[in-house]
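Quick start: read one record
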Amino acid sequence: MRSKAPPANALEEGLALAALEAELFRRPASTVPVLARYVLAEKIGAGGLGVVFRAYDPDLDRRVALKLMRLRPDADDPESSVLLREARMMAQLGHPNVATVFDVGTYDEGDLGQVADPDELGIPMRGVFLVMELLERGSLHQLLREDPPPRRVVSILLDAGAGVAAAHAHGIIHRDFKPGNVLVGSDGEVRVADFGLARSIAEPDAEPGSGTPAYMAPEQLYGGEADALSDQYAFALTAWVALYGFHPFAGIHGTGTTRGPLPPAPRRRGVPRAMSKVLRRALSLDPTRRYPDMSAMLAALGAARVNRPRRYAIGGAVVVAGGLGVWALQPTPSAVCDSAGSTIDEIWNDTEREALHEAFVATAQPFADGVWGSVERTIDVYAERWRAASRAACEDTHVHHVQSAALLDRRTECLERHRRELGAAIGLLRDTDPAMLANTVEVVHGLGWIAACEDPEVVAAQRRLPEDPRLRDAVQQVSMDLSNARLLELSGRYTEAMSRARHAQADADDLEDEPLRAAAALRLGSIAARRGEHQQSRRLLLEGIQLAEGARQDELAADGWIRLLWVAGVELEDTEQGDIWVGFARAALHRLGDDPLREAALVHNLGGLYYRRGQWDEALAHYERALAMQRSRLGDEDPRVARTLNHIANALLMAEQPRRSLRYSEQSLAIRRQMLGSLHPLVAASLNNIASAQVELGQHADARQTLDEALSITAGTGLQEETIARRLAQLLDTAEGSR
């Protein structure tokens, strides 16, 4: 009784008093602090643009964060205000690494019910409100006090960066990125919060200089306009602080608010030197010298995570950790690597480009131009990455002396497999026809992951080819046949793919080569699944997994378990069996170590398993996690990202959340339009999803317009997308007729 009372909260006291009065005197609690339907509970933040409350949404029975932002004095029409447009853009974002926005709108004094002086609470009497998920979790700023391992810090940064990149892709910049605005949950989920200073990239900066000075880019700090490159600078500054434990400019005047040359990056165990190079470029005083966008920077940061072997000077030589060899300190001239990577020109050149373009045009399909643009860009990027990786492999041995000649041979062997596969893909695409054209983008995005050839541990674990030249050639030929079968599968030519894989299987049997027999069985199982032969697929996948496990081929085993989870647990609806395969898949991934793309595939397929069970929340959590992982490694222009967005939209529809479903479908549509043009059948698939959400929301006129656009793409094709659009149109007719 005599202990000191806790600090008073005027809003909570008001709520309690209003509820008591309502109970005792049977009268409405007119003094309850509300904005529209939202009940204000506690003021939890304030800034130059407004104030934030912990609030309660009685309609949906959930606690939310409610941000009230004041309009500029000269804003006559709230509906036309920049703030409202920004808020609505945020509500459309819907990214797993960005705090979710549930509702936006304008308000005035008549919408407020108060129990305290609004001036005392800092509530603008007229403005824009933003309703967001209430994030009760710690920040990166708090986590850094615990000195987490660099590997975890980099993972958090990549997830947060994916959120910022998604905002940029949606036309929004943050303007106040810093460790305190990166929220990290106990479950490892990462969200970028406090987009209160965010604005559209297309809008002039109405509040130059706004933000946290210690993390501002120089152009923003000194009163200029902030843009996406300013966000990149703030992200890199945050990464520097998180990885090296100090603010690089704090020593200049003690506040970190003066920009100058960067100090040397200290050595820290677990932080590769390559990371400091990435951060230095992103922290360039001249914005034009930074990375072109956040996605490019994140790709560089992700690649820099690979630790190269360390060197130790002993006497007059350099010993590479792990017993890779000994070299003289004096490097050989770099001229030896000048031609490294040039062989890619034999595969991709102007002649091949022109022939491929002519093949696409010859299909006379309305979406040929859109698909060609995406395929050309993807091959260009792939070829340049291959060239750079080939040169880097050469220089690591002959210039930097950080790897042995033996490891160079392994990396070169890995890269050569990718070069041959690219050549096979280009040859297949030259033979494209109208039926195959729709799948050409998936073919080029399915090419092997070049980064695997840059990781010494991954390369060392890959299978060595036989020393006997004849046996070596035979093994390479079977491997190439299986690669061609995979490309044919991606192109939709399943009969040809099956024939090629069976031929490879017979050759593998003749060679008595267990790894190749495993790969052939798994390829046949994958093709069978695409043909809808799921029982046959399950049998073949299990056969391939057994062979892979026996041959200690962990990558093949992991791929098999991940695919089997989808086939058995989702397609065959055997969810109990799916639970078993999840455990085996996780064990295989554990043996592989860090493999983000396979991990994303597993998480995605586990989301499908929960979807099949009708456990919508669990399905959404896994799909959204997979989406974040895919975006951070693949960027937005990738078929897998658009597909996962659609799966999330479907799950949200089943969970009776059509408004959120609509946002995800619109993101998928935007990616597919950019990637495939406006006339591709997959664009129609995204339009069908949008129409489904619009029907659920009662937006019948919008749904009708959306379905008309979908049918303008698919009418007369007989494709599944046309069937779905016509079925939705019938449902819409019924709904409109019952009104």
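The two ends are 62 Å apart (CA to CA).
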